[in-house]
Specification:
The protein is mainly α and 524 residues long. The protein is built from 23 helices and no strands. Helix 9 packs across helix 18, helix 10 packs across helix 23 and helix 13 packs antiparallel against helix 14. The protein is globular.
Length: 524
């Protein structure tokens, strides 16, 4: 894992591309890891390393010569940022400056205390046991070949609408990235399937790639969301409500993107292939639409187990995750019967252990950062500084939107969450911001970071995909085309963000409903 590795889910490659690296398209052993091994940017060169380690040395000197503990804490934060820019693994970039900072401020006893207690306290919460269950479920569902089937169903059912293929792609992407927990994996699989289909239908190339890029933005809001579980662990909020809080905003954002594509189909029909002569696609019959539903029966079962179990109160979120993982095992056995299903399950289990361990190491680093902020007194100083600015709740959140979008140009979602949540949590109560709502807000802004130039990973994944002649169908799709397509779609997400700030109740409606109907299961 490195500082610029995305932690939103499993980029298991589709079977027809198992020898292609997600980012670099280099030949390698078929991918089985949950998270991509590539970096969002090139490794730093000799000059960058020299400057970076020089800055680390400056931070260390500043830390040990600081007149106050708070200033020492600020030097530690600066050191974390430098290490992240040097592509040092996130867990190390968080934990090492924290440990050094605690030693500099409070000496050896406090350092030994943080080393002995932080690893256990960070990951011992029982509710975090749902995390490996969700990861395992996503691995198995990807292994079972669900992605292509879900896309085909969405395509069949929505293709008759203006912009229907794009609308179907949007809903398929939301569903796939939600169930698999993987924005990157969904983008790769759906891009290879969806871009050529849209180009065949006469879609403008920018419309085709833009639809794919935003299709997965809702995936880490709609349960099961790995990032929402991690946020719940960092912010010490119940996992159940945290998961459910993102469901309605995620669905509404997918509907907003679908409505935008529909509007384009009405206003500028040629951008979505209307009025363009294409002989490569035929309109699916009702029989084909109904038949295609049979291929995704496993998807429906997973949704019933997850949502039905939690709504009814039969399962807690943790138990629902375990039940859904069991269903995914059975689904993989059935779908891959005769194709070494037990080997696929074993590979998924090993990758789940690896990914869960990586996430837990990062959470340990976040716990150490929280301890550093408490020991140095930096957290209350930052809270007081923000409060003294005299910002209203809305003003505070608008500033955060700008801050997170800028950070998203340089850091992945997990890095932004771990760097900012411990610092901002004490301020939320002062500003009247619900921690539950803030989790949805942060995760959605993190998804912005996945597509924001100059180093958002999704545009570059799309660029690598469209170099394949089987995908571009003879069209030349440049990086400039991809960035232009973002200018078409991202304003929709910005408008939705403003709506989320104006109507915070949309995050609390579903958790409150489940709380009433299930007798309080959501807290477990």
């Amino acid at each position: 894992m490195n500082a610029n590795t995305d932690f939103t889910g499993a980029p298991l490659l589709p079977e027809d591309a198992s020898t292609a690296n997600v980012i670099g398209m280099t030949t390698q052993k078929p991918a089985t890891a949950l998270f991509p091994s590539g970096s969002r940017r090139e490794r730093p060169g000799v000059l960058a390393l020299t400057i970076g380690f020089g800055l680390v040395a400056v931070c260390l000197i500043g830390l040990f010569t600081s007149p106050t503990a708070a200033i020492g804490g600020a030097w530690c934060i600066a050191m974390m940022l430098v290490l992240l820019f040097l592509s040092v693994p996130v867990a190390i970039a968080l934990s090492v400056p924290s440990i050094v900072g605690v030693y500099a401020v409070s000496g050896i006893p406090a350092t030994m205390n943080i080393l002995s207690t932080a690893p256990f306290s960070a990951v011992s919460d029982w509710t975090l046991s749902v995390l490996p269950m969700f990861i395992f479920m996503g691995m198995l569902l990807t292994q079972s070949g669900l992605s292509g089937k879900v896309y085909r169903v969405a395509d069949n059912w929505f293709s008759w609408l203006p912009g229907g293929i794009g609308i179907g792609t949007t809903f398929a992407g939301a569903g796939l990235s939600a169930v698999t927990g993987s924005t990157i994996g969904m983008t790769y699989a759906l891009g290879r399937a969806g871009i050529p289909e849209m180009l065949k239908a006469g879609y403008d190339k920018r419309m085709a790639v833009g639809t794919i890029m935003v299709a997965g933005m809702t995936g880490n809001l709609i349960p099961p969301s790995i990032l929402m579980v991690i946020y719940a662990g960092i912010a010490s909020v119940p996992v159940g409500p945290a998961l459910m809080a993102g469901a309605l905003p995620g669905i509404l954002l997918a509907v907003c993107f679908a409505a935008f594509i529909f509007a384009i189909g009405v206003i500028a029909p040629r951008l979505v292939g209307r009025g363009v002569d294409t002989d490569d696609r035929t309109t699916p019959t009702w029989r084909q639409r109904l038949t295609s539903l049979g291929g995704v029966w496993g998807f429906a079962v997973i949704l019933v187990v997850l949502f039905g179990g939690m709504f009814s109160g039969i399962f807690t979120p943790t138990e629902a995750g375990a039940a859904a993982a069991l269903c995914s095992v059975l689904l993989c056995l059935w779908e891959k019967r005769g194709d070494h299903p037990w080997r696929k399950i074993a590979d998924s289990a090993m990758a789940t252990v690896s990914a869960t361990s990586a996430i837990f190491f990062i959470m340990i680093g976040a716990t150490m950062l929280t301890s550093l902020l408490a020991i140095t007194g930096l957290a209350p100083i930052l809270t007081g500084f923000i409060t003294d600015l005299g910002l209203s709740r809305v003003g505070f959140l608008l500033v955060l939107i700008v801050l997170y979008i800028i950070m998203g140009m340089f850091f992945d979602t997990m890095s932004m969450m771990l760097l900012t949540i411990p610092i901002l949590l004490p301020t939320l109560e002062t500003m009247g911001v619900s921690p539950l709502w803030f989790g949805v807000f942060v995760v959605l802004l993190g998804e912005f970071g996945m597509v924001t130039p100059p180093v958002g990973i999704i545009p570059y994944i799309i660029h690598s995909i469209v170099k394949d002649k089987a995908v571009n169908l003879g069209h030349t799709i440049t990086l400039r085309d991809i960035f232009i397509s973002l200018l078409w779609f991202l304003p929709v997400a910005v408008i939705f963000l403003v709506l989320l700030v104006a109507v915070p109740g949309m995050t609390e409606w579903l958790p409150d409903l489940i709380e009433r109907t299930s007798g309080g299961m959501a807290s477990s």
